[in-house]
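P.,

For your records, the input lines for the assembly:
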Amino acid sequence: MVASLRLPSLAHLFSSPSSAANSNISGRSPVTLRRRFHGLFLRPWPLAAGFAAQSPAAETQGGIDSLKNRVPDQVITPRSQDFNAWYLDVIANAELADYGPVRGTMVIRPYGYAIWESIQEYLNVKFKETGHSNMYFPQFIPYSFIEKEASHVEGFSPELALVTIGGGKELEEKLVVRPTSETIVNHMFTQWIHSYRDLPLLINQWANVTRWEMRTKPFVRTLEFLWQEGHTAHATPVEAENEARQMIDIYTRFAYEQAAIPVIAGRKSKVETFAGAYKTYTIEAMMGDQKALQAGTSHNLGQNFSRAFGTQCSFTKCKFVQFTDENGQRQHVWQTSWAISTRFVGGIIMTHGDDAGLMLPPKLAPTQGVPLRIEIGPRDLSSGSVVISRRDVPGKQGKAFGISVEPSILEAYVKDKLNEIQSSLLEKAIAFRDSNIVDVNSYDDLKVAISEGKWARGPWSASDEDEIKVKEETGATIRCFPFEQPEGDKKCLMTGNPAKEVAIFAKSY
Amino acid sequence: MVASLRLPSLAHLFSSPSSAANSNISGRSPVTLRRRFHGLFLRPWPLAAGFAAQSPAAETQGGIDSLKNRVPDQVITPRSQDFNAWYLDVIANAELADYGPVRGTMVIRPYGYAIWESIQEYLNVKFKETGHSNMYFPQFIPYSFIEKEASHVEGFSPELALVTIGGGKELEEKLVVRPTSETIVNHMFTQWIHSYRDLPLLINQWANVTRWEMRTKPFVRTLEFLWQEGHTAHATPVEAENEARQMIDIYTRFAYEQAAIPVIAGRKSKVETFAGAYKTYTIEAMMGDQKALQAGTSHNLGQNFSRAFGTQCSFTKCKFVQFTDENGQRQHVWQTSWAISTRFVGGIIMTHGDDAGLMLPPKLAPTQGVPLRIEIGPRDLSSGSVVISRRDVPGKQGKAFGISVEPSILEAYVKDKLNEIQSSLLEKAIAFRDSNIVDVNSYDDLKVAISEGKWARGPWSASDEDEIKVKEETGATIRCFPFEQPEGDKKCLMTGNPAKEVAIFAKSY
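Structure tokens returned:
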């Protein structure tokens, strides 16, 4: 029972180091054991430092490398003073990540990785429940594949890492280290899809991907990152659309219910749509500095990739992604892809963290000792009771004294408090989000809102050129046309023409 | 209860497609549902074909590409006729994997990947129980790192894939796509280890690695493969040795108890030791063609890497992997690394498979419908009973008729049978292994044994040169000096000199 809360048995806290060392959760030695418990329960927030010094091989460039200027002590820059410095301090102090030796790369340390494992555990079950199978595609993609879908190559070619030497020899064709897998997936789909009976084909992979980003920031944007990428093929456009919507719904529920992040789900503008997609759905999260973070996306790819891989085919026996429908005619399949990455860990930090450091929603905390701290003094040891402090409520107000260590009482108390913390974090984030979204009806209103660091929500039916002008003049982009739309007639904030939808504009990561 | 056996509820088999479609295990449509059940229960072995045709981008070279010559039908080459063709047929027919577009790469398909997930689930728990934390290191390693440990660079440099272009620009320093992570791990360890209080440091990562192999074979040897790699640092050589032995023991138990593969665990000869290690421990498995497969290794690295990364240090404030011991002196740490990869899936296929195709040990079967087949006819539907067939016992002998579908009866029956199959597969594999190991006391004996396709076990204390001569003359290498040694005085089979240990010689993958 207690184990289901990811809480080591409290009995160990009251036993001698040598007997505890024989338990499941012990390390190798009493020393390890003490350090482990110290880490989980007894150390004050923020978590211990021991921060890495500068790497000799790291280049001094990009946000990720400014991690190295963080000093190895417990001091965290106040959030209000310098949000970026605060973010890097939190990561350093909680030992979530460290920079790698290559510019823009990141080492995900055990505590940071455990948060990612919590995310994986939840989503992996949801993906399987909705009929998807995990598999694995090679990460090396022939360069020619990337060139097959016109907007895809335009979007990704500036960010590619290329392998040109293998086994000591110059390769005949350069290999792309996957930035995403649509092309290689379609290459394989051509071989697996022959008939409508092979559809829907629903797969997912957990993998690393590489994008040669110039401005990097731990978790948020790194040269290499971890993610899941789902890829599906369907017989009809309606099925593909339903799939893309289903997956953004799963991400939305995950964000609200597990991460306590009140994302706004919606559709991307054409300008912001994924390179190669027909439509992109997104969940947008407001960070503590009011900037938007694109926290997950789901693409309805239409037939863009299936046509690209088909139209390039020059063989007599065609093997492109198309199938025989029930009437015996051949047509291209309809596809989706969708992804969430280690960036989400950055989103959690920047949504819930405060001046004291990292704050995790209980449902994603690797050890649920962390949102709640259990304090044990010499008097507690004799009375069989503990003090329990809430991470999210500072000072005496967040403390409960004299909680019995009798397992059923303690477990019920802890469960109850964890639920309370989870709800409270979400409510607080919703209140923060809503107080920072401004409804606007003119471009002037929009400019004021953005200059004040707010999100601007207003009717929009203007051109791509107008959208780009807003970006150039204010730094804000359309984050999405939210699924939840106000009723009634609307007029475009830019042109005054009728508008069907409101869009949300914001500065973003 | 039934779910714990990874068996979909049998009730669904007796319900209409529309009601079953609402269940957890359903796909999107009755069509998917029928295909799904068909796959799990009702299709005859071997699993359905639908094998991929030739890839236009694949080069015709290496074993992995000969997969493409397998025909898309149910025919499996008899194992006795051509073991390699049989192996490729089994993989194609069971849809475990397909070749990728780049020579030597492999796409792991859902059923093959699910076997890997079963392996991961078991080992991941064992690693955490023994105090290891998962984390993630970047896959790009500066080329200069590889050169720091002399035997490491000698071993790996012919197999490297190199990234030379990033973001459209030629890189100043080539990046190695990790073939293994000892170098980058040590680079980071220098920053995290300052004192004996930071030890032991016990970490693991699940990752992809790249080795530019010329002769490839699905699962067994591919350009890119998936594995876990553990890396640890300790204060004393005894601790490092205990760790290396503990991990090979975990692999051994996994092989016996989960995979029903009776591996022989032992120490590698100096010639066969991992590039950069002080000692390598291994588990060696006998495949169906009597060739040996190195199925997992655990290395005691001594101080090789900690010294390599230390001695290169040219900074005033040294950051190499060393720590202050309790006496205040500084010394280098003692390290281990250990790994199991997707190669193990190949080992399972080649240990248990037969002329009918894939045979999986129940404890690793993604769905425990597969070692047992449940057959339902129209008469069964009315009588509420099923026929259960064992995959490992052909014909009527393996069938049990009239098994009630009453959940408690069916579950008990299935559990019992699965245990019986698991034990029976292990016993059969032990008998096969033992009947193919020959004790030899002279080089002539050894040559005869090897020429007959057997493993030769005999006393060995000869030189590295003699060991290399055996390889050149017979094709066999020392697979290991087994931990289990016969007692009594022994004389080296090659030189007649006293020998402390017997070694096992065999041809290998």
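Two observations worth noting. Chain A touches chain B through 81 residues (CB under 8 Å). The first strand of chain A starts at residue 97 and ends at 99.

Regards
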